[in-house]
Design goal:
Strand order of the largest sheet: 10-9-12-17-14-15
Distance between the termini: 61 Å
Strand content: 35-45%
Oligomer: single chain
Radius of gyration: 24 Å
Low-confidence stretches: 1-35
Length: 589
């Protein structure tokens, strides 16, 4: 009996301790000192995401915002290369929702990719859907986010993939790591913001703040007490996992007086490069090492806009967190005065030279298998457009330049999502009338893409056009920016694939001279490429993943205007080269 009582007491003590520990961790989300340890062989991880309205206070006001599990940002998922994820998403919000696992290859599991009306119909209010997929051959920092309307303004979180058991990073494992999600905040409901822009035909209102892990930081009203703190000890090296979760803005990122050593981008290892500033387009991730080699103190971590679109309005504020050395004056102790943290030197908002110097410095960690023989040589223009005000519309619905409505396109085709079927369902079930497969391999009309473009080319054709690829085909795409309305940097994201960025440049791509610039040895492997303002980028990949895969600008304003297309990659030979059957709980439209 004594043994039994002792065992019961110990169990009660341990349960109480564990409960207290959980409460402590939950009550201090702003103090980041995460270094998860995940052991064992490949595992299956089960999660439940409850999508719901939650009261969130920012910039002095409390708002109802859509979140996952009441958290903003949402929960971080930690897995290892080779693990399987099973995530049940329950929609208790008033909007349709889907979740996209940004950067996950989704080999043969396109049903889990997430973009609404592309690989699935949305999860309606009161319904649920379970995403199931295996992560294979990927390590590093990715993320997940809503792929419906502008819900991803608050519905997003990190997805960290650690090396397989028995393997390691390409760099010495740091003592600690922190994940920093850069975001945008609107005082207005983001869904209302984009709906109003769709109604008026004008550009949506810019954000009211940028955030780091959901917090604006010291430079905004009513925000200082919640500024994110990243702790560090003198002499140690830490890993920062940086994600640009913003809806519509490229961001410069820096840490005052500290060099950043880039070791990975979009969950692909890179040759280490040391820099004082990095650039991330929306959707991109970058892992950097920082050596705590400065005098003990407090140093601002800061991010602000890279705005490449001349004359376009943008949020010119700056979000901050604080890198705080152990031994710095106590933040909560009475009688100790805190000095203001040191502020970093950030580039000018329009510093294209710094942006270009960073993106062109990235290289894969080792020699990589870039396709050298090309089966599909594609040329896609990427840019904005304007359509005349329809006769039936009042002037209040045509608030674009000179009484027009904004639009956007690839190869002069403005992408329109279906509404009765998802593209993947229609393709797999042979449903006619949902899409066509005549997306052009090149612009219908050649023109001076970055010069003065004829107004006759400003009006793209709306439609749901896909481009068909044979399984295993080797693909090259020249992504050519245009100066229609305004030139700007476009972060182009391809679902279901990573690709090699073999070159980028300014002006019009010239195959006769620009092919000499191609890096076919160690180009960076990414899932999102920044097409330079007034320039071009060339990517290559092998079409080894069957399904329907969206390619789009990750500026959410632009995808809402139609800056997208989709590839239909045919099945290969046999089960292992074919799309898996749809899950039983796939949402219906």
């Amino acid at each position: 009996m004594k043994v039994h009582l002792k065992h019961t007491a110990m169990t009660y003590w341990f349960s109480s301790f564990l409960f207290a520990l959980i409460l402590f961790i939950a009550s201090a989300p702003l103090f980041i000192d995460a270094n998860p340890i995940i052991g064992g062989h490949p595992k299956t991880h089960h999660h439940e995401f409850i999508v719901q309205a939650t009261k969130v206070k920012r910039l002095c006001r409390t708002h109802n915002r859509i979140t996952v599990n009441g958290q903003f940002p949402g929960p971080t998922i930690n897995v290892k290369n080779g693990d399987t994820l099973v995530v049940k998403v329950v929609n208790k919000a008033r909007y349709n929702v889907t979740i996209h696992w940004h950067g996950i290859r989704q080999m043969r599991t396109g049903w889990a990719d997430g973009p609404e009306f592309v690989t699935q119909c949305p999860i309606r209010p009161g319904q649920s859907y379970t995403y199931r997929f295996t992560i294979d051959g990927q390590e590093g920092t990715l993320w997940w986010h809503a792929h419906s309307s502008w819900l991803r303004a608050t519905v997003y979180g990190a997805l960290i993939i650690y090396p397989r058991e028995g393997t390691s990073y390409t760099f010495a494992k740091p003592k600690r790591e922190s994940t920093l999600l850069l975001g945008e905040w609107w005082n207005s409901n983001p869904v209302d913001v984009i709906n109003e822009a769709r109604r008026t035909g004008g550009a949506p209102n810019i954000s009211d703040a940028y955030t780091i892990n959901g917090q604006p930081g010291d430079l905004y009203n009513c925000s200082s007490k919640d500024t994110v703190i990243v702790p560090v000890a003198l002499g140690e090296t830490i890993l920062l996992r940086v994600v640009n979760s913003a809806l519509n803005q490229d961001l410069f990122f820096a840490v005052a007086n500290h060099k950043l050593t880039v070791v990975s981008a979009d969950a692909s290892y890179t040759k280490p490069i040391t820099t004082s500033v990095i650039l991330l387009g929306p959707g991109q991730t970058t892992d950097v090492l920082i050596k705590a080699d400065q005098p003990v103190g407090r140093y601002y971590i800061a991010a602000r806009a890279y705005n490449s679109a001349q004359g376009a309005p943008f949020d010119n504020t700056t979000t901050t967190a604080i890198l705080e050395y152990k031994g710095s004056p106590c933040r909560t102790c009475s009688g100790q005065s805190l000095q203001s943290p040191v502020f970093p030197n950030l580039p000018a908002y329009n510093d294209t030279a710094t942006a270009t110097a960073f993106t062109t410095s990235l290289r894969s960690y080792r020699k990589v298998p870039v396709p050298t023989e090309i089966d599909e040589d594609l040329f896609f223009t990427v840019g904005l457009g304007l359509i005349p005000c329809p006769r039936r519309f009042r002037s209040s619905r045509c608030q674009g330049p000179n009484g027009t409505r904004f639009t956007a396109s690839m190869n002069n085709h403005s992408f329109v999502l279906p509404s009765s079927w998802s593209l993947l369902q229609a393709q797999q079930q042979g449903i006619p009338g949902v899409f066509t497969t005549d997306f052009p391999a090149a612009p219908p009309v050649k023109f001076d893409y970055t010069g003065n473009v004829s107004r006759a080319l400003w009006n793209p054709v709306p439609g749901t056009k896909l481009y068909k690829l044979k399984y295993g085909s080797r693909v090259q795409i020249v992504l050519q920016g245009t100066s229609i309305q305004t030139a700007e940097n476009h972060p182009i994201h391809l679902h279901g694939y990573d690709f090699f960025i073999v070159a980028e440049g300014f002006g019009n791509f010239d195959a006769n001279k620009d092919t000499s610039k191609f890096n076919l040895v160690d180009p960076p492997l990414r899932n999102t490429v920044g097409v330079p303002v007034g320039g071009w980028a060339v990517i290559r990949f092998a079409a080894d993943n069957p399904g329907v895969w969206l390619m789009h600008c990750h500026l959410d304003t632009h995808i809402s205007w139609g800056l997208a297309m989709a590839f239909l990659v045919e099945n290969g030979v046999g089960k292992l080269q074919s799309v898996e059957p749809p899950p039983a709980d796939l949402p219906i439209c």
